[in-house]
Structure formats: C-alpha cells, structure tokens
Amino acid sequence: MSLHHKRILVAKPGLDGHDAGAKIIVLTLRNAGAEVIYTGLRKTPEYIARVAIDEDVDAIGLSLLSGAHMELVTETIEWLKKLDGEQIKIFVGGTIPKDDRQALLDMGVVGVFTAEMKLAEVLATIDAALSR
Amino acid sequence: MKASSQPKNEQAKRVTPSGIEIPQVATEEMHRRQLELPGEYPYTRGIFPDGYLGRLWTMRQYSGFGTPEESNQRYKFLLEQGQTGLSVALDLPTQCGYDPVDSMARPEVGKVGVSLSNLREMEILFEGIDLAKISTSFTINGTAAIIYAMYLATADKAGVPRAKLTGTIQNDILKEFVARGTWIFPVRPSMRLVADSILYANTQTPRFNPISIAGAHVRDAGCNAVEEMAFTLANGLAYVDELLTRGADLNGFAGRLSFFFYVHTDFFEEVCKFRAGRRIWARMMKEKYGATDPKSCLFRFGVVCGGASLTASQPYNNIVRVAIETMAAVMGGAQSIFTAAYDEAFQIPTEESAEIALRTQQVIAHESGIAQTVDALGGSHYVEYLTDKMEEEILRVMREVEDYGGVIKAIEQGYIQRRIAERARQRKELLDLGERVVVGVNRYQHESQNGDAQDGGVRELFRMDPKTAQNIVAKFNQVRDSRDNGAVERNLARLSDAATNDRENLMPYIVDCCHSYATVGEMVATLKKHWGEFQEPTGL
C-alpha cells in the first residue's frame, strides 16, 4: 500500500453530526500509513477547501449522512477550482443513494463509499486514485 | 473488545458482543441470589409490580420531514393507524440553531426532519391534533430549551393547560458532544440550559419528561451495550449533580428523569443490559444520593429498535431484526418503543415501511403473549448470570470515566470520543473479517449484490418534494415580515440580560421570545454572544 507520505483531509461538511464513519476512515487511513487531518463537525465547503490547500493534502474525504451530499460536494469542488486546488482528489462516504453515487463519480469524485463496503476495498480505491 | 483477541479455534470462548463469557449451560451457582419481585427495589425485574398488565408500552414512531404541513399529514396518518404517541424528528438547521435562511442551513432545510424555526411552524405542525390527549416526544438537544418553550407557547395559544401536556424532550446535551453532534454552546453553559429547562418543567408541566438521557447515539456510533449503559448512567449522574448544585431537591426532579437506548439484535445481552441498568440507577439514587421517594429510584426508559443493526443490503431482513429487538425491549421492560422501518438504513421511511414497523410492535403486543406475565425471563439462570455480569462491567466502565476526572472533563478533552471511535473501528474490522456475522452483508449475500446494495431493490422509494426548502424559506420570511418586531427585540434583549446571570432561569424569557415569533436562530445568536460555541476536540 502506498499511502505512506500521502496527506489526507477527512471532513464533515454541513450540519450532519454522524461522525462514526468519518472517524473509522481517519483511523483506518492512519493505520495504513497516511497522514490524516480530521476537521471535526460542521465545516463549510469553503473552509474545507482552504484547509486542504493550506495543508497541501493529496485528497479530501467528505462524509455526509444527512442527504445534503449533492449540494455540499458540488460546492467543495467549486471552491477547490476557485482556489486552484483542482489537483486534490475527493472521495465521499455516507448514506448516498445509488443514482447520486453515479452522479458524484461523473463529477470527478474518485470513490463513493457506503457503510457496508469493506475497509480494504475503500483503501484500495483511494490508493489507486492517489497513485494515478 | 475481548472478541478481537480470541484465538480462532474451536476452543475459543464464546462471548457476547460486549465481551462477556457465555457459558455452555448456565446454572444456579453462576448468579447471585434470590430476586426481589417486580416493582420492588432495586427493580431488576421491572419498575411496576404489574409490568405491562396495567398499561402497555407506548408505541412511538419517529417521524417528521419537510414542511410542517407534510409532517402534520403524516402524524394524522400514524394516529389513525393506532399509534399512541408522536415523536417529532427535526431538521438539522433547527437542531443546530440556524434559521432556514442561514447560509449554513440552506442545503439541509427540511431534510432529516421537519423545520421548526418559529412558533408559526409549530402551530401548523400540530393543527387538528389535541395536545392534551397526545404525548409528544421531541428529539431535540442543542435547542431543546427553545423547542420546549415553543411547545408551551403552542399549547398556550391553543388554550391547552400546560399541566395537561405529556411527552418528552431529549435535552441530553452531553451525548451530543460525544456522538450525535448537534451541540451549540460550550459544555458548561449547555448544562445550565438543561438544568433551567428541567427545573422549569418540574413546576410548569409536571407530567412532561424534561430530559431523556440517551445512550442510543453512542451505541449507534459504535460502542457496545456495556459502554452504552455506562456512559449514559454517568451522564445521568452528571445532570443530577448539576441540578443539586443549583439547589434543586433530588426527590423533586429525580422521578422525571428518563432514559433512551438502542436495542440491537443480540437478544439476551439487550434484555440484561436493561435489567442491570435499572438496578444500578436505583442503587445510585438511594445509596449514593440518598433519595427517599421510591419514584426517584425508578429507571424509566424508551428504546429504539434498529439503527446501526439494520442493513442496506437485503433490507427486508431488517423486519426480522426489528421484531427480535422489540421482543428484547419488552422482556427488558421498556416504557416506550420505537421500531425503525426496514428502509431506515438508506432513506426516510415510506408510509408502507413505517406501517410495517408499527405492526411489528402490535403483533408482539397482541399475538405473542410475551407481555401477559411480568418479567417472564426472571430467574432464568442465564439471564440472571448475564444481568450480574453486565452490572459488573457497566460499573467498571463508569469507574474508568470517574478515574479520568468525570464525564465533563472526559468530554471536553475528547476521552470518551476517542474510545467510541476506536470501538467503532474494531466493530467494523470484525465485520470485514467475518467474525461478526451480519446476514446479507458478510454472509449469505446474493451473487449480484457485490457489496453495493445501497437501496436493496425495495419496491417503494421515498421522494422528497424538491420545493420543500423553498416553501419553508418563503413561510419563514412571511412570519418575519408580519410579526411585531419591536416585541421580538424587547424579548431578545431581556433574554440577553438574563443570560449574564447564572442564577436566573432562562426558560420564562425563552417562552416570551417564542410567543412573539422570535426565531430559533435569533435566540441562539443572542445566547452565543455571551457563551460562544463548543470547541470540538478533533484529535483521534
């Protein structure tokens, strides 16, 4: 696994307080060798994009379970563009209906993860996206 | 916990999900003693001598979405179906203290519950429903004091005497800091607001539960049944301490404290969790705090069956899980039960799925016969053994929190949060390794499933009206334009003054604000000026 020396920001955009999944991903990525920063709850897309750029991360993981994923992921991508951070990859996890998952992938998100996926699979997807 | 270190061979000890050893056969020597009768201290077998014979549990389905009009329709539907209490789900902006026009709120207006940003919205929500005849539960925490005040104002305007109101506000801010995340203010002023609302409720609405101390959310965030009960009882004691510091009389408030838990699928562990919790709470109240009124020692609780035990894969299996969990809740002596709909793992329940969930409880209540005698499992060697073991383990975890410096410090410094996160990771690891079997997820999958069954091919999908948020915002602006803004400003100014004095109860001021159609966002902003916001410890 080549996640060593990769920097990843895990973030909770919007008001959703379900952070178990985000924290599992933080611990799992860290155990896999990545340097992980966790934002905590209730961050705006602008804040997340700015932290990602300041911290020079390779990827952002956005965790959303409130149903507001389409709006908030779109806004995060727009802020990254605005701030010249387009090279930063985005992956998304949470309660994401099937139709929306494809839509997110079409927007350039590198992976969409749900609770029942194996962590090994999640890691492999992130790893592959960051090795490209 | 212990499960992960077990050698994977035939001799491995069997343990419950909390790591308690399961004997092949339980015998008399494995548990302590003769049991008291139901209704007798310390209430292992239940708080009432007649169990459910006098009164069945309350069947209370959590619902609410979109506009108050849409939720009002759903409530009327549920009441017609024989539901006996309402449970209001609120949207995140209302829960976190933002008005629907706030940029922070915009993407989430009306999404996971109903928007209740001002009194007008609540009046619409309960239109045509007699508040004197129905008990209403609000899952609200950060803004609990405000929503409770709004409920009082709604009753006042409808001419319903406050003393007739029954129901519950969750109002358990401590667990929001560790799991559910709808905190607003720092821990200490948040505790003041909780105490204010409990003390006010004791005099204004003696039949209303002003707090429901909840383990459900830490459980759903990943911790086991022992930790769920231990963290919750520890939080309960922190509220008792806070109220005593405010000079309240223990026997005056203890009888109105209530609790709320998840029930997951491991039947016996769940039953024994409740039996042990009841015993510990009664002993704490009597022996540690010196409660003299027997009512102060009664551990009354509601439950939710479902949550993280439900799966998005093969979702109809969830109907069976919820049935098992409901039976565990009944054998554990729950006062109210919410059964989750089978599609909860991926959407707001449809009318069909919500109805099946309610019918599950009704079948258990009226066909299964398990509620026809009190504590049917009492005296079973295994149940008594496991009750004793759960009690020991729960007390051990409570001591660990105490040794760290108590709940408040443990939350402010992120100790409990880190414990829960690590447990959640372990739980997921056991699932991935196949050591924790979940049917349809890591065993007995369909070939086509591919770990990718988010909405499981169910027949009916819930669709939110895309105009919902627009409608809510339009109505909100109407209210702000038509109210007496002078009165709003005066009431907010008085609230602001009162907030600076710790000995002042803020509730009458908040009720006045609600009456004048001040908004949730305005009241929260007023208090934030004095108190600031909680700074979340994010180190893991």
Topology (elements, then pairings):
The complex is a heterodimer of chains A (132) and B (540).
Chain A: E1 7-11, H1 20-31, E2 35-38, H2 45-54, E3 59-64, H3 69-82, E4 89-94, H4 98-106, E5 111-113, H5 119-131
Parallel strand pairs in A: 1-2, 1-3, 3-4, 4-5
Helix pairs in contact in A: 2-3
Chain B: E1 58-63, H1 68-80, E2 85-88, H2 92-96, H3 119-125, E3 135-138, H4 144-158, E4 166-169, H5 173-180, H6 187-204, E5 208-209, E6 211-214, H7 216-220, H8 225-245, H9 250-253, E7 257-263, H10 267-288, E8 300-305, H11 317-332, E9 336-339, H12 351-366, H13 381-404, H14 407-412, H15 415-433, H16 468-482, H17 485-499, H18 507-515, H19 520-531
Parallel strand pairs in B: 1-2, 1-9, 2-3, 3-4, 4-5, 6-7, 7-8, 8-9
Structure description:
The complex is a heterodimer of chains A (132) and B (540). In chain A, strands 2-1-3-4-5 form a five-stranded parallel beta sheet, sandwiched between helices. Chain A is 44% helix and 18% strand. Chain A has helices spanning 20-31, 45-54, 69-82, 98-106, 119-131, and strands spanning 7-11, 35-38, 59-64, 89-94, 111-113. Chain A is of the alpha/beta class and 132 residues long. Chain A contains five helices and five strands, in the order βαβαβαβαβα. The longest helix of chain A has 14 residues, at 69-82. Chain B has a nine-stranded parallel beta sheet with strand order 5-4-3-2-1-9-8-7-6. Chain B contains 19 helices and nine strands. Chain B has a domain at 15-52 and 162-375 and 386-433: Methylmalonyl-CoA mutase (TIM Barrel), CATH 3.20.20.240. The radius of gyration of chain B is 23 Å and the shape is globular. With 540 residues, chain B is an alpha/beta fold. The model of chain B is unreliable at 1-7 and 450-454 (pLDDT under 50). The chains are: A alpha/beta (132), B alpha/beta (540). Chain A binds chain B through residues 14-20, 23-24, 26-28, 30, 38-42, 44, 66-68, 71-72, 95-98, 101, 114-121, and chain B through 92-93, 95-96, 98, 103-108, 111-112, 176, 179-182, 220-222, 311-313, 345-347, 420-422, 424-425, 428-429, 432, 441, 451-455, 464, 536, 538, 540.
